[in-house]
Design a protein that fits this description.
about 200 residues, alpha/beta, Rossmann fold, seven-stranded mixed β-sheet, globular
Amino acid sequence: MNFYNKYILPKLLNLVMKREKIEKQRPDVVAEASGVVLEIGFGSGLNLSYYKNVTKLYALDPSQELYELAQERIKSVAFPIEQLKISAEKIPLANNSVDSVVSTWSLCSIPRPEVALREIYRVLKSNGKFTFIEHGKSPKNFVAKTQSLLAPIWKYFTGGCSLDREMDKLVGGAGFEIQKLEKFQQKSRSLVFMYKGVAVTKK
């Protein structure tokens, strides 16, 4: 891990992901989760204050630096949190072991999102719920081409984040049934197109 990814990027992500436009989207996504919950891309714990009816949270994120930034937020919640310092491509949980999975702007940075989504499906119980908000490929042709063109530069400065993934197709391709899906352009950021949804397992 280089100096930028270890010392600068975690603090930058913690700062950027607290912006008002992003914070406004968290409650709807996170509040859908209940019971035993797995959060993909726990980061610095910015979702913690929005969880309701959670009995246990698995906090999955390969970044120890981000987890350390979450310590004060972790102390503020009543439910137990177990750190999983690993990629979502290999989730160290048993089949059918969690009730809900949450992902907020995390699938974009996983090298093989299709593998991670199959793992999410595997650990969810029958009728388990996967709630997510991600950014991805725009339906506008010119914007989509621009996203693809800028993708290598964007990845370098954001720690591997991809601009142009079709998130709904990835989720559906993993076997999920998408019950709700909202797509929208983030205001003032023409390259950021959002996918916000709820999907369930069909076991």
